[in-house]
Fold:
Amino acid sequence: MQEGGPVTSSPVDGSSYAANFSFTNAPLLGTARVVYNGPLNYVTVGGLTQGVVYHVAVFEYAAASAADPLINYQTNSPALGNAMPVSSAFRGTMFQFQ
Structure:
């Protein structure tokens, strides 16, 4: 997830990334922040600023096999989206992909 412009960073095969639902506390991956790493198709992200456009990229991944659990990211066509929080009272925004 990145503020102000599209996500241009991609994960590296074989690497696992920590995540944090709070945008300001989420670890960096290049210029983007990792806000979720898991099996669900949605995430609610906090710590966002009203009026700022946030861009997301969702990368699918799988292990090569049960015997070789090396993570393989599908970086050629991530799911993309963006949103802008409109209320200072509610700064959590849910992103959902299908």
Notes: Strands lie at 2-3, 28-29, 32-33, 42-45, 54-63, 71-83, 93-96. The longest strand covers residues 71-83. The chain has no helices and seven strands. The chain has a mean pLDDT of 84.
